[in-house]
Every structure is written in structure tokens, then in C-alpha cells.
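== Sequence entry ==
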Amino acid sequence: MTFLDMLRHAERQNRSLLCVGLDPDPAKFPDRFKGDASRIYDFCAAIVEATADTAIAFKPQIAYFAAHRAEDQLERLMAHMRAVAPQVPVILDAKRGDIGSTAEQYAIEAFERYGADAVTLSPFMGFDSVQPYLKHHGKGAFLLCRTSNPGGDDLQNQRLASVEGQPLLYEHVARLAQGPWNLNGQLGLVVGATYPAEIERVREIAPTLPLLIPGVGAQGGDAVATVRAGLRVENGQTTGPIIVNSSRAILYASGGDDFADAARREALRTRDLLEAAKG
């Protein structure tokens, strides 16, 4: 199946819009793993097993592995996710953005080395930095559009005087992704949950693209406002899918030996909150 097929299947099977973010920080691990980077795989594998039937996607953040020389643990984790949750797509959160020849190597890293179903990208070097990822049939690519961090205003919220209508930069990215850049229907957009009005604006511009929405949970995003702004359903079928990410609130729901059970409870609570918001 393509990434979009997997996404739709996981949404139906798990009745979920929740993406479980995997941002393993050994300093925050439960007591028996705390400070031990060699246990990144063990910690994340336990979270995956506890939440596999609650999620529309998993999203490992590559920096949390690379910082601890744990890329081999990430490879093991990717294989583990495919084994225990084959119905749940995996989005590698890498935010890559480089020229074409380098992008080709990054695409191999994401899709062949790690076996990801989708990857996050920075679009600000232009289409030739995105195109190499689209050569991998059926894989997804999420372009940074309107991110949840306060500094996003520095660029994303600036007007483009050289473009007809003088859109904001994030609006222009959304138009490109919905239109000429989306050659094979593989693109999606990253839009932060801390800006629900701007989620709605992106959805107006890109009515069918999947939206990856970080910022719910520890970052303070409103889950109900996020769903109402971004999700689009016609005749009982999702036409504008959303993937609502929560990381720290789930990963570190408990510092004790019950960390996996606590993660499951928080994942279920968030999943049910998102489902209720659909109305």
C-alpha cells in the first residue's frame, strides 16, 4: 500500500487521528532506564507495543537517536514497528532540506535504510530539493508550512511581494504543495496545533492534503480546535486527513515501572478526545 492507503487504513482500523511521537530523551526515561542511552530501543519498543492499536501513525524524531549515536537502535525500532504494528505508517521526522544530489542520499536514508513510509522536509530550497523524495513510489513527504514554534513568524508569516496576491509565505507553500509540486499525490504539510486559525487557512488552500499537526499535549495545542480546523469529511469518508502528534505527554506519562501502561492510558485519552471532536 502507499503511505496514503496505510494512513486511511490505520485511521479506520484504530479509530484514530493520533500520531505517537517518539522523541526519546534518556534524561527523562523512567527510573530503571534513566540516563542510559543504550536503552533507547527498549524504551521506544515498549511505547510502540503499548500504543500500536491507538495510533494513526508513529513519528520517530531522528535527532533524538543520532545525538546518542543510536542510529542502529532506530533501525531496530523501525523493523520492530513493522513487525508489531504493520498497519500503522511510520513518519521519519528528519526535516531534511538540501540540494538535489544530497536530497537523493537523504531519501535513500529515510526510505531504504530506515524503511520509513513518509518523511518531513524543509521546502525552503525549492522544488529540486523535494523532488528526489517523490521518486520513491508510494512514499509520503510532509513539507514544513506553518510550524508551532514562536520563531515561525520570522519567515512563515511574511508576505511575498513578488507573488501575485502577496500571500504569506506559509500560504504560498501550501499552494505549491496542493498544486504544481504534488506530482504523484505524495505531499502533505506540517502545521502546528498552536495556530488553529492558520490550520483552517491551510486547509482552505490545500483541501485534500494530509496535515501533520504537532503541538498537542506538552506544547499546549487545543485538540478539539485542531480537529475542527483541519479535518474534512464527506459522506463519512475523510477527504482531508489530519495526523495529530503528541510526544512528551505520552512518552513520559509516568516515571515508574508502569511507564508503558501510563503511555497507553494517555494515548487512549488523547485518541478519544480527538475522536469526540469529530462530532
